[in-house]
Design goal:
This is thioredoxin-dependent peroxiredoxin. With 225 residues, this protein is of the alpha/beta class. The chain has one domain: Glutaredoxin (3-Layer(aba) Sandwich). 38% of the residues lie in helices and 16% in strands. It is built from eight helices and nine strands. Strands 5-4-3-8-9 form a five-stranded mixed beta sheet.
Length: 225
């Protein structure tokens, strides 16, 4: 495999991200965010609502341009990888979705499709998709109606939301409600019949994510390729 096609390592790229954040964000603000992530990691160790072997619920959600995307239509083409993320205000979500974009050719070569789901409104999803040149579906799950069937839903801490506001990030502008509810990040792989082949979350600490290599390895093993 050539260098340009090496599988990205999220944990390595996260080191640079955290160095960049430390240079950009006041120490006091960074402490609020890190304390929040630490606490979420303690509070939500096990987040998954579905396990390997379970039948995933079918759903239809609007994509970034408000077109309805049905899970069944993608399953008709083959396996589907689904990731739930917090929002494009979250730098760790941006980082990991960018990493997943870079393995999309390999995912496609294995006969699978990929989608990312958050409770953001379609306009915010479009911003996410455009900003990061994402070539997979970015779906809007208002009220986390789909996400809550797959992973745990948490309420983003007021302290973190307020601190982001001080830095010019209006958390509420990304959503159609004021609930502050977001999914605990998680990744699922479904076979063409909708059965869960792979299910993983690193828990409430949103700085931790499922590695791209884990997705590819799971696809190769479960699909015997």
């Amino acid at each position: 495999m050539s260098k340009s096609h090496e599988v990205p390592v999220y944990e390595q790229e996260k080191i640079q991200l955290q160095a960049d954040l430390a240079a950009m964000i006041p120490k006091e603000s960074l402490a609020v965010f890190n304390d929040d992530a630490d606490q979420l990691g303690l509070d939500y160790v096990s987040a998954l609502k579905l396990s390997v072997g379970d039948q995933a619920p079918l759903f239809q959600l609007p994509n970034a341009v408000n077109k309805i995307v049905a899970l069944q239509d993608l399953l008709n083409e083959g396996p589907v990888v689904i990731t739930f993320y917090r929002g494009n205000w979250c730098p760790y979500c941006n980082l990991v979705l960018n990493a997943y974009q870079r393995i999309l050719p390999e995912i496609k070569a294995l006969g699978a499709n990929f989608m990312a789901i958050s409770s953001q409104n379609p306009d915010s999803s479009l911003d996410m998709q455009t900003k990061h040149s994402l070539e997979f579906e970015v779906l809007s799950d208002s009220g986390n109606q789909v996400a809550k069937q797959f992973t745990t839903i948490i309420q983003n801490a007021v302290e973190a939301v307020d601190e982001a506001q001080k830095l010019g990030v209006d958390f509420y502008s990304f959503y159609d409600d004021q609930s502050r509810e977001v999914p605990v990040p998680a990744v699922f792989i479904l076979d063409k019949n909708g059965k869960v082949l792979f299910a993983k979350s690193e828990g409430g600490d949103y700085r931790l994510r499922v590695e791209p290599s884990e997705i590819l390895n799971a696809l190769k093993v479960t699909l015997n390729k």
